[in-house]
Amino acid sequence: MNTENPRERGRPSLTERRKAMTQLEIARTAAELFTEQGVDGTTAEDIARASGVSPRTFYRYFRTKQEAVAPLLVTGADRWRERLGSFEPGGNPAEAVERSILAELTPESAEETEELERARGLVRAARDDVSLRAVWHRVNRESEVLLVPVLARLTGREEDDIVLRLAAAAVTDAVRLSIEDWAASDAPGRGGEGPAARVARCLRALDTGLWGAPAVG
């Protein structure tokens, strides 16, 4: 007999939630160590020890030390798509995209500021580490793919519509490039030079035309 509560269908189990929490804690620890010691100066065993888990547990979750940061990078993108998905279909998709991104990238608490600074440290470290850079680009590519159905729902377009897929790619890269540009600076997380403001400028350039004039031909 199936005793599953219908209200619980689709929700992660307690074991899955605990696993996700452990992975996120390891990711935060890895990010801190990479920022403090550099990627080359940090081993997987260092991350495991600082996280309070065994190396065996670490390798059960992650193949390499660089992959350990993926859950931290994914979290913000997941929250952003969730915000975007809360908008009703039929509205202005450009406005919904911008509002949801600005809300996610504008820190409102010390904890959110700390999380953004962790991301800055990781993006900086990725410039000099091929494997870490590969993780960063993979996370962005996965986010792009997951964004397609969200935009399809908002716009009423088919998911295989090439213009819709182009929009998902453009928006994802606008966020990626803005974060990379901000991370390379010493600008604070809020204000006119923060990541949110940089994304806004990129999105408006996309919305009005990259070259400031209609395309020829």
Textual characterization of the structure:
It is built from 9 helices and no strands. The chain has helices spanning 14-37, 44-51, 55-61, 70-85, 93-105, 110-126, 130-155, 162-183, 195-208. Helix 5 (93-105) packs antiparallel against helix 9 (195-208) and helix 6 crosses helix 8. The model is unreliable at 1-9 and 213-217 (pLDDT under 50).
Keywords:
single chain; mainly alpha; disordered N terminus; disordered C terminus
Please outline what is shown here.
The chain is built from nine helices and no strands. It has helices at 14-37, 44-51, 55-61, 70-85, 93-105, 110-126, 130-155, 162-183, 195-208.
Question: What's the arrangement of secondary structure elements?
Answer:
Layout: H1 14-37, H2 44-51, H3 55-61, H4 70-85, H5 93-105, H6 110-126, H7 130-155, H8 162-183, H9 195-208
Helix pairs in contact: 1-2, 1-6, 2-3, 4-5, 4-7, 5-9, 6-7, 6-8, 7-8, 8-9
